[in-house]
Design a protein that fits this description.
Blueprint (H helix, E strand, L loop, with lengths): L8 H9 L5 E4 L5 E6 L8 E2 L3 E11 L11 E8 L5 E6 L6 H10 L3
Antiparallel strand pairs: 1-6, 2-4, 3-4, 4-5, 5-6
Length: 110
């Protein structure tokens, strides 16, 4: 997991090309297009101990100067229960469960 220190869409594409899985925070105002729901049967919001997950979608990312990322990414939007801060979580782990997401977010102080 890494914070928003890496924002270049080309970096995410490179990680995906190399088979590197990742979880990162994504700016709430990032340019994305929702392609489809990760799990169409899921009902939102879902809650972990620290987060209220409001959406979970496969998305197309856009970068500066109109760059369109090659790979779809999973974008999970959530609100931290402690203070209602909104978060976007970007990741490529196709089978990430809420329990594992909670572990990642707790380690990062979310």
């Amino acid at each position: 997991m890494f914070d928003r220190g890496i924002t270049a869409r080309k970096s995410y594409d490179s990680f995906t090309d190399k088979g590197i899985t990742f979880v990162s925070r994504l700016a709430v105002n990032a340019k994305i297009d929702i392609v489809n729901a990760f799990d169409a049967s899921a009902t939102f919001p879902l809650e972990t101990v620290t987060l209220r997950i409001t959406s979970d979608n496969w998305c197309q990312l856009y970068g500066e100067k109109g760059y369109k990322a090659k790979h779809l990414v999973r974008v999970i939007k959530a609100i931290r229960l402690q203070d209602n801060t909104q978060y976007g979580l970007l990741q490529m782990i196709k089978r990430l469960k809420r329990r594992r997401l909670q572990r990642y977010t707790n380690e990062d102080g979310i």
